Predict the structure.
Amino acid sequence: MRLALYTGIILAGGYACLTPALAADPTGDWRVADGVANIRVAQCNGSMWGAVSWEKQPGGRDENNPDVSKQSRPTLGMATLIDMKKKPGVDQWEGQVYNAKDGQLYSATITPAGTDQLEIKGCVMGFLCGGETWTRVGPPIPLSPANAMAKGAPKPTGAAPKAQGTAPQGTAPQGTSQGTTGATVPAPTPAPKTATAAKPGQKGAADPVGDICLLPEIAGFAH
């Protein structure tokens, strides 16, 4: 049996070369064997989870789910690797995998093979096992702040202190400058700030999935 999974996001930029210390890190974005999608893997509340973060053909639906109420749900952002726990003494995680091609759950393991491959194996009833190898397309993802159910970075407390008193005589008001003739002229308008690129696993215009630990299906299970 060939375990053909329907799954992630191709990041706009390439990922940096990984050091041997990261060889056993299964987090990041992975291209599935048949190339139809990527799976984003991240650690959520102590377990590894994976969700679809990019589709070759956008607009997929979970049509083969035996639960009729879920057959219209989008496959983008859908959990595929479910509550995978690390096995003691080995760089391997075991849990369940959801195969959208047949709507079934399988017992499965994921095992990093070097820095840029992830082996996934699944079995039905303990036999009829199959598997495939995924290829890394994005760097490892830092531990999610969603483990503490944080929605974002802490906001600074209080506003910046305001200047006291009035400007000394002969000093131009803020936002203006004095010319050589003594006339007050407006200060040049500062250039607008450019948007910064999204970090791996960070939701943005080019990444509609973002932190998978915040997806309702995963957050509700993990917490």
Summary: The CA atoms of residues 130 and 140 lie 26 Å apart.
